[in-house]
Structure formats: C-alpha cells, structure tokens
Amino acid sequence: MSVDPMIYEAQFFGFTPQTCMLRVYIAFQDYLFEIMLVVEGVMLKKLDSIPGCKITPSKIRKCTEKFLLFMKEHFDKLFSKMEEVLLQLVLNIPKNVLLPEDKVQEQYPYSEEEFQALQDELQQLQQQCRAEAVLEQELRAELEEQKVVKAELEKILQCFDGLENICRENGAGNFKESFALLTQCSKKLQDVLKEVKEKSKTMNQHDQLM
C-alpha cells in the first residue's frame, strides 16, 4: 500500500485513495475465498457420486488450501500493479489542478512567511482576547464590590439623616455642628484619659521605689 497520505485527493473524494484500494482488496479476497469454498463443495459432491473413489475430503481440503494460496500470491502481485496504476492515473489529482473551494488561494496567494505572520498575529489577538476577558471579570467583581459599598453608604446616610431628625426634634440644632462638637469632646476625653494613664503609671513607679 502507498504511504503517501494524498491529503488533497481525500479532500476531493471524501476518503483517502488508500482506503478505497484497501476495501477493494478485501472485497476481492473475500470473493476469492467464497469461490474456493464453492469449488470445494462441487468437488466433494462429484466424488460422492463416483463409486470406489479413494480421495478423502481432507485431501480435497489440502488441495483447496494449496490452490487458494497459489491464487492469493498471484492476486497480490496483480493487485499491487493495479493499485499503482489506479493511484497514479485514476485516484490522483494532478499538481496543476486546483479544487473549486481553493480558488481563493489562487486569487489571494501568500508565502509561508506571510502565513506565519498571520499565525503570529492570530496568536497575539487570542492572547489579547484572553487578557481582556480576565480584565472584564475583574471589573465585574470590582463593580459588585462597589455596589455593596454603595449600599452600606446609603445605610449610613440614612442613619445620619435619622440622627439629624432626632436632633432637630429635641432642639439640638444642626446635626453636623453637634457631631463636630461631639468629636471635639471625644478627643478631649481621650487626651484626659491618656494623661490619667500616664500619671497612674508614674505613681505606680514611685510606689515601687518606696
């Protein structure tokens, strides 16, 4: 069998020429085996009708097998020549023939270097698409986080609005001013607490020395 893959022929026929030849070979071989079995059956019937015949069925089978081997050897030689002729003259597309679906290559020819450049460009575009897909996922995740933060801020604003309303209802004036005052008082309390801690520490050290 030919080792040439014959890819262009496979594109045109829909099957590889080697596959076609293999199927033809198997079909011929099966037909030969069937014919030999028929011949053997006829010979056995003829021998049964001959009185005093000393030829046994086992001898007939051995002769049949020898004849089959002889026929198969000659068939293989003939088929090899037939295969060579068919692959070269029947199942072969000449080098100067272009299939209709490949006409575009004739209109827009390109070299191997140009094809490689297109392949490189395609690979870069694929990498960019993957990078943009990752970036899009990150942006979507960040957007979801911003939505959560926005919801929390809205809750805080609603809380401040409620406190401001309570301050107005109780005559505390502007909530922002009250909040600033509370912040200053809190800072002063923190300073006083820090001062008390430092004095307490100093007194403890003095007691230890005494």
UniProtKB/TrEMBL annotation:
Residues 108-156 form a coiled coil. One of its GO terms (biological process) is mitotic sister chromatid segregation. Its main location: nucleus. One of its GO terms (cellular component) is MIS12/MIND type complex. InterPro entries: Centromere_Mis12. Keywords: Cell cycle, Cell division, Centromere, Chromosome, Coiled coil, Kinetochore, Mitosis. It is found in: Chromosome, Centromere, Kinetochore. It holds the Pfam family Mis12. Belongs to the mis12 family. PANTHER family: PROTEIN MIS12 HOMOLOG. This is Protein MIS12 homolog.
